[in-house]
């Protein structure tokens, strides 16, 4: 079921305005919204539509979206502008950028802004708030959020003698299923059993394994990491063994961007990727597929991911009111539900899942609820002070291990040593 945007906005237009009559009598208050996507494509059109709907529902306010490229591009451009005194008023950036933005003294806590109430701030899923709060303040509003899930090709399961409706539930089953699904002609592999991407941000995929092995990669204060914990090393060894020992996973670095295409082209039977790919898979997979929580090691688990909405100190009083109103608009149950339906990202509040549109969508497509159901098992994505440098240290050593240049233990020891060098001054 698809909810029309005008229906989704029903009631929002009648909500009391946050802006004072004096503000409304003036020229429209404009805010810039930096958004992480290249220009063009369906999501750009969706965001453009949301901005236009917000303006219709909120006379006196304007939102100018700027599409700044990847998350990394958007962060770089936003911080460069902020240092020059030209920051946007609001932006969607990675939830893990929280410490970087605070250290740059670029953003404001939402708790202190006009029109913000505790009920709204506490209304998001707790798993998403882990990367949104620190020091007793809420710095980011969950919006474009996700977790990792397992996708599988039901036709291949049936051909391999597996129940096409049952995914592997444990690490051991994942190896066994992948072994039965891998196809070889001599030494040539024609189909891999499983694929876990390791390019771009391997740390995020790795956090699925570490969470399942019941270990966290960092503390809540973002000033200490635990990369050399024996359970972390064990999780990396499991990932390495998929290709080097069990030979059910492609060797070397697996590309994030091409993994869904490999799945569509039947080059791989199971893949780990973001729930943000759900709509893409539903539209493009030429075969029946399943979606499940990631299999358990010592426990179930995944790291959350995706973007939060931040408000920048540059915003004046009227613009701060506009930023609050816009964030509330984007996360209202009806619109949050429609965003999840349109994109595959996880609707960020329980209230969104109680809307008629979302209930009808889940009834028609039960896979849409998998990521939501996994949230009680989810943890915060790796986030620290100087997060880019710390994650680079981990990523570099993960890739060194996955390509056979380092053993698991030394790789994680090296990553921890570099992270310790970077973070020591923040304790």
Which key phrases capture this entry?
single chain, 427 residues, alpha/beta, D-Maltodextrin-Binding Protein, domain 2, 2 domains, ten-stranded mixed β-sheet, two-stranded antiparallel ribbon, disordered N terminus
Structure description:
This protein has 427 residues and is of the alpha/beta class. The protein has two domains: 5-146 and 305-369, D-Maltodextrin-Binding Protein, domain 2, CATH 3.40.190; 147-304 and 380-426, Periplasmic binding protein-like II (D-Maltodextrin-Binding Protein, domain 2), CATH 3.40.190. It is 43% helix and 16% strand. It contains 20 helices and twelve strands. It has helices spanning 5-8, 21-25, 42-57, 71-83, 98-103, 118-121, 126-129, 154-159, 171-181, 202-212, 230-244, 259-264, 278-284, 317-331, 333-343, 350-353, 356-364, 370-374, 387-402, 408-423, and strands at 29-35, 61-67, 90-94, 133-134, 137-138, 141-153, 183-185, 188-195, 268-274, 289-292, 302-311, 378-379. Strands 1, 2, 3, 6, 7, 8, 9, 10, 11 and 12 form a ten-stranded mixed β-sheet that branches. The chain has a two-stranded antiparallel sheet with strand order 4-5. A hairpin with a 2-residue loop joins strand 7 (183-185) and strand 8. Helix 10 (202-212) crosses helix 11 (230-244) and helix 19 (387-402) packs antiparallel against helix 20. The longest helix has 16 residues, at 42-57. Residues 1-17 have low confidence and may be disordered.
């Amino acid at each position: 079921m698809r909810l029309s945007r005008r229906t989704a906005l029903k009631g929002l237009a009648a909500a009391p305005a946050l802006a004072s009559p004096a503000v409304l009598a003036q020229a429209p208050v404009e805010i810039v919204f930096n958004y992480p996507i290249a220009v063009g494509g369906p999501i750009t059109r969706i965001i453009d539509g949301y901005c236009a709907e917000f303006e219709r529902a909120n006379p006196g306010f304007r939102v100018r979206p700027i599409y700044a490229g990847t998350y990394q591009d958007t962060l770089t451009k936003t911080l460069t502008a902020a240092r020059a005194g030209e920051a946007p008023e609001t932006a969607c950036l990675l939830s893990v950028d929280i410490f970087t933005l605070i250290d740059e003294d670029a953003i404001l806590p939402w708790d202190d802004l006009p029109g913000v109430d505790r009920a709204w701030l506490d209304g998001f899923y707790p798993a998403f708030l882990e990367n949104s709060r620190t020091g007793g303040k809420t710095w980011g509003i969950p919006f474009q959020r996700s977790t990792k899930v397992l996708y599988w090709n039901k036709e291949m399961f049936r051909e391999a003698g597996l129940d096409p409706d049952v995914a592997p539930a444990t690490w051991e089953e994942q190896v066994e299923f992948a072994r039965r699904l891998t196809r070889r002609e001599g030494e040539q592999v024609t189909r891999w059993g499983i694929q876990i991407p390791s390019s771009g941000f391997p740390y995020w995929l790795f956090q699925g394994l570490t969470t399942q092995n019941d270990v966290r990669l960092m503390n809540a204060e973002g000033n200490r990491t635990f990369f050399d914990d024996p359970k972390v090393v064990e999780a990396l060894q499991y990932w390495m063994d998929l290709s080097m020992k069990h030979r059910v996973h492609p060797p070397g670095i697996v590309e994030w961007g091409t993994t869904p295409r490999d799945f569509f082209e039947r080059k791989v039977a199971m893949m780990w990727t973001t729930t943000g790919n759900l709509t893409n898979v539903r539209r493009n997979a030429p075969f029946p597929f399943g979606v499940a929580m990631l299999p358990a090691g010592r426990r179930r688990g995944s790291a959350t991911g995706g973007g939060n909405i931040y408000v920048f100190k540059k915003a004046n009083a009227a613009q701060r009111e506009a930023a609050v109103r816009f964030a509330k608009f984007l996360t209202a149950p009806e619109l949050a539900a429609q965003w999840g339906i349109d994109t595959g990202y996880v609707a960020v509040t329980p209230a969104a899942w109680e809307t008629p549109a979302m209930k009808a969508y889940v009834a028609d497509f039960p896979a849409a609820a998998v990521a939501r159901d996994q949230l009680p098992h989810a943890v915060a994505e790796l986030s620290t002070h100087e997060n880019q440098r710390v994650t680079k240290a981990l990523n570099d050593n993960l890739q060194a291990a996955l390509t056979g240049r380092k053993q698991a233990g030394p790789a994680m020891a090296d990553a921890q040593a570099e992270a310790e060098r970077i973070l020591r001054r923040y304790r």
